[in-house]
Design a protein that fits this description.
Blueprint lengths: L2 H7 L13 H14 L3 H4 L8 H23 L11 E2 L5 E2 L15 H17 L16 H29 L3 H17 L5 H4 L3 H9 L3
Antiparallel strand pairs: 1-2
Helix pairs in contact: 2-4, 4-6, 4-7, 5-6, 6-7
Protein backbone atom coordinates (compact mmCIF):
# COMPACT_ATOMS: atom_id res chain seq x y z
CA UNK A 1 0.00 0.00 0.00
CA UNK A 2 1.45 3.33 -1.02
CA UNK A 3 0.86 5.44 2.05
CA UNK A 4 1.93 8.72 0.47
CA UNK A 5 -0.78 8.41 -2.15
CA UNK A 6 -3.47 7.69 0.35
CA UNK A 7 -2.41 10.55 2.57
CA UNK A 8 -2.62 13.30 0.02
CA UNK A 9 -5.91 12.02 -1.33
CA UNK A 10 -7.47 12.03 2.11
CA UNK A 11 -9.72 15.02 1.87
CA UNK A 12 -10.62 16.74 5.04
CA UNK A 13 -14.20 17.71 4.21
CA UNK A 14 -16.22 16.93 1.09
CA UNK A 15 -15.57 19.32 -1.75
CA UNK A 16 -18.33 21.78 -2.43
CA UNK A 17 -19.27 21.47 -6.10
CA UNK A 18 -20.63 24.28 -8.20
CA UNK A 19 -23.21 22.76 -10.59
CA UNK A 20 -21.90 22.42 -14.12
CA UNK A 21 -23.71 24.49 -16.73
CA UNK A 22 -24.75 27.07 -14.12
CA UNK A 23 -23.76 30.72 -14.35
CA UNK A 24 -21.61 30.29 -11.26
CA UNK A 25 -19.79 27.46 -13.00
CA UNK A 26 -19.06 29.80 -15.93
CA UNK A 27 -17.73 32.38 -13.47
CA UNK A 28 -15.51 29.77 -11.84
CA UNK A 29 -14.17 28.81 -15.26
CA UNK A 30 -13.50 32.49 -15.97
CA UNK A 31 -11.64 32.78 -12.66
CA UNK A 32 -9.54 29.71 -13.46
CA UNK A 33 -8.72 31.01 -16.93
CA UNK A 34 -7.57 34.42 -15.70
CA UNK A 35 -5.56 32.78 -12.91
CA UNK A 36 -3.74 30.83 -15.58
CA UNK A 37 -2.50 34.10 -17.05
CA UNK A 38 -0.40 34.53 -13.91
CA UNK A 39 -1.60 38.05 -13.16
CA UNK A 40 -3.37 37.57 -9.85
CA UNK A 41 -4.23 41.23 -9.29
CA UNK A 42 -6.17 41.17 -12.55
CA UNK A 43 -7.62 37.73 -11.92
CA UNK A 44 -9.44 38.83 -8.76
CA UNK A 45 -11.16 41.84 -10.32
CA UNK A 46 -14.91 41.72 -10.83
CA UNK A 47 -15.54 40.65 -14.44
CA UNK A 48 -17.41 43.28 -16.44
CA UNK A 49 -21.16 43.19 -16.01
CA UNK A 50 -21.08 40.59 -13.22
CA UNK A 51 -22.81 40.73 -9.87
CA UNK A 52 -20.41 41.38 -7.00
CA UNK A 53 -22.20 39.04 -4.59
CA UNK A 54 -22.09 36.22 -7.08
CA UNK A 55 -18.38 36.78 -7.78
CA UNK A 56 -17.63 36.75 -4.06
CA UNK A 57 -19.77 33.64 -3.57
CA UNK A 58 -18.02 31.66 -6.31
CA UNK A 59 -14.58 32.62 -5.07
CA UNK A 60 -15.46 31.90 -1.43
CA UNK A 61 -16.50 28.37 -2.38
CA UNK A 62 -13.28 28.00 -4.36
CA UNK A 63 -11.12 29.16 -1.42
CA UNK A 64 -12.96 26.80 0.91
CA UNK A 65 -12.12 23.92 -1.44
CA UNK A 66 -8.48 24.98 -1.77
CA UNK A 67 -7.90 25.36 1.98
CA UNK A 68 -9.71 22.12 2.57
CA UNK A 69 -7.30 20.36 0.25
CA UNK A 70 -4.20 22.07 1.63
CA UNK A 71 -5.13 21.35 5.24
CA UNK A 72 -6.06 17.79 4.25
CA UNK A 73 -2.43 17.14 3.27
CA UNK A 74 -1.13 18.00 6.75
CA UNK A 75 -3.87 16.70 9.07
CA UNK A 76 -1.61 13.94 10.37
CA UNK A 77 0.85 16.58 11.65
CA UNK A 78 -1.87 18.73 13.19
CA UNK A 79 -2.94 16.74 16.24
CA UNK A 80 -4.25 17.26 19.76
CA UNK A 81 -0.72 16.79 21.08
CA UNK A 82 1.22 18.79 18.47
CA UNK A 83 -1.29 21.67 18.42
CA UNK A 84 -3.17 21.77 21.75
CA UNK A 85 -4.30 25.34 21.00
CA UNK A 86 -5.37 26.97 17.76
CA UNK A 87 -2.57 29.43 17.17
CA UNK A 88 -0.80 31.41 14.49
CA UNK A 89 2.56 31.90 16.14
CA UNK A 90 3.12 32.74 19.81
CA UNK A 91 1.17 36.00 19.75
CA UNK A 92 -2.08 34.85 18.22
CA UNK A 93 -4.46 32.30 19.64
CA UNK A 94 -8.02 31.68 18.46
CA UNK A 95 -10.97 30.46 20.51
CA UNK A 96 -14.02 29.04 18.78
CA UNK A 97 -17.58 30.38 18.86
CA UNK A 98 -20.17 30.25 16.10
CA UNK A 99 -22.77 32.40 17.82
CA UNK A 100 -25.46 29.71 17.71
CA UNK A 101 -24.32 26.37 19.14
CA UNK A 102 -21.29 27.77 20.93
CA UNK A 103 -21.91 31.33 22.05
CA UNK A 104 -19.06 31.73 24.50
CA UNK A 105 -15.65 31.27 22.84
CA UNK A 106 -14.01 27.99 23.84
CA UNK A 107 -10.34 27.17 23.89
CA UNK A 108 -9.70 24.03 21.85
CA UNK A 109 -6.96 22.25 19.93
CA UNK A 110 -6.15 23.32 16.39
CA UNK A 111 -7.60 20.17 14.75
CA UNK A 112 -10.82 20.58 16.75
CA UNK A 113 -11.01 24.30 15.96
CA UNK A 114 -10.42 23.73 12.25
CA UNK A 115 -13.00 20.97 12.22
CA UNK A 116 -15.56 23.30 13.83
CA UNK A 117 -14.58 26.08 11.44
CA UNK A 118 -14.74 24.06 8.23
CA UNK A 119 -18.00 22.39 9.24
CA UNK A 120 -19.47 25.81 10.03
CA UNK A 121 -18.31 27.21 6.66
CA UNK A 122 -19.68 24.20 4.83
CA UNK A 123 -23.08 24.69 6.50
CA UNK A 124 -23.14 28.32 5.33
CA UNK A 125 -22.17 27.38 1.76
CA UNK A 126 -24.85 24.68 1.65
CA UNK A 127 -27.54 27.08 2.83
CA UNK A 128 -29.49 28.08 -0.28
CA UNK A 129 -30.87 31.19 1.45
CA UNK A 130 -27.29 32.45 1.95
CA UNK A 131 -25.57 31.03 -1.12
CA UNK A 132 -28.28 30.61 -3.76
CA UNK A 133 -27.11 28.35 -6.57
CA UNK A 134 -30.07 29.00 -8.84
CA UNK A 135 -30.06 31.82 -11.35
CA UNK A 136 -32.20 34.78 -10.40
CA UNK A 137 -32.49 33.86 -6.74
CA UNK A 138 -31.35 36.98 -4.93
CA UNK A 139 -28.58 37.01 -2.37
CA UNK A 140 -29.71 37.93 1.15
CA UNK A 141 -29.17 41.47 2.44
CA UNK A 142 -26.61 40.23 4.95
CA UNK A 143 -24.62 38.26 2.35
CA UNK A 144 -21.57 40.54 2.50
CA UNK A 145 -21.24 40.25 6.26
CA UNK A 146 -21.61 36.44 6.09
CA UNK A 147 -18.97 36.23 3.34
CA UNK A 148 -16.61 38.45 5.36
CA UNK A 149 -16.97 36.23 8.42
CA UNK A 150 -16.30 33.11 6.35
CA UNK A 151 -13.19 34.60 4.74
CA UNK A 152 -11.91 35.93 8.07
CA UNK A 153 -12.16 32.43 9.49
CA UNK A 154 -10.64 30.70 6.46
CA UNK A 155 -7.67 33.07 6.80
CA UNK A 156 -7.01 31.57 10.24
CA UNK A 157 -6.45 28.15 8.69
CA UNK A 158 -3.82 29.60 6.33
CA UNK A 159 -2.25 31.41 9.32
CA UNK A 160 -2.10 28.20 11.36
CA UNK A 161 -0.58 26.21 8.48
CA UNK A 162 2.08 28.87 7.84
CA UNK A 163 3.05 29.31 11.48
CA UNK A 164 2.85 25.79 12.80
CA UNK A 165 3.20 23.44 9.83
CA UNK A 166 5.31 25.12 7.18
CA UNK A 167 8.11 22.57 7.66
CA UNK A 168 5.65 19.76 6.83
CA UNK A 169 4.40 21.73 3.82
CA UNK A 170 8.01 22.04 2.59
CA UNK A 171 8.68 18.32 3.14
CA UNK A 172 5.60 17.51 1.08
CA UNK A 173 6.78 20.01 -1.56
CA UNK A 174 3.48 21.85 -1.30
CA UNK A 175 4.86 25.32 -0.59
CA UNK A 176 4.40 26.67 -4.13
CA UNK A 177 0.81 25.45 -4.07
CA UNK A 178 0.19 26.98 -0.62
CA UNK A 179 1.82 30.31 -1.57
CA UNK A 180 -0.14 30.63 -4.81
CA UNK A 181 -3.40 29.80 -3.08
CA UNK A 182 -2.74 32.25 -0.25
CA UNK A 183 -1.61 35.01 -2.59
CA UNK A 184 -4.79 34.60 -4.63
CA UNK A 185 -6.83 34.70 -1.40
CA UNK A 186 -5.07 37.84 -0.12
CA UNK A 187 -5.35 39.72 -3.41
CA UNK A 188 -9.03 38.83 -3.50
CA UNK A 189 -9.82 40.05 0.01
CA UNK A 190 -7.74 43.20 -0.58
CA UNK A 191 -9.52 43.96 -3.86
CA UNK A 192 -12.93 44.02 -2.14
CA UNK A 193 -11.84 45.03 1.34
CA UNK A 194 -13.21 41.87 2.92
CA UNK A 195 -10.93 41.29 5.91
CA UNK A 196 -9.95 43.85 8.50
CA UNK A 197 -6.22 44.61 8.55
CA UNK A 198 -6.04 43.70 12.25
CA UNK A 199 -7.21 40.20 11.41
CA UNK A 200 -4.41 39.82 8.88
CA UNK A 201 -1.68 40.73 11.39
CA UNK A 202 -0.40 37.15 11.97
CA UNK A 203 0.78 36.99 8.34
CA UNK A 204 1.50 40.68 7.77
CA UNK A 205 5.14 40.19 6.72
CA UNK A 206 4.26 37.45 4.26
CA UNK A 207 1.40 39.55 2.84
CA UNK A 208 3.76 42.49 2.28
CA UNK A 209 6.32 40.21 0.65
CA UNK A 210 3.72 38.67 -1.71
CA UNK A 211 2.40 42.13 -2.59
CA UNK A 212 5.79 43.74 -3.22
CA UNK A 213 6.71 41.10 -5.81
CA UNK A 214 3.66 42.15 -7.75
CA UNK A 215 4.06 45.89 -7.93
Amino acid sequence: CDSSGSRSSKTFKPKKNIPEGSHQYELLKHAEATLGSGNLRQAVMLPEGEDLNEWIAVNTVDFFNQINMLYGTITEFCTESSCPVMSAGPRYEYHWADGTNIKKPIKCSAPKYIDYLMTWVQDQLDDETLFPSKIGVPFPKNFMSVAKTILKRLFRVYAHIYHQHFDSVMRLQEEAHLNTSFKHFIFFVQEFNLIDRRELAPLQELIEKLGSKDR
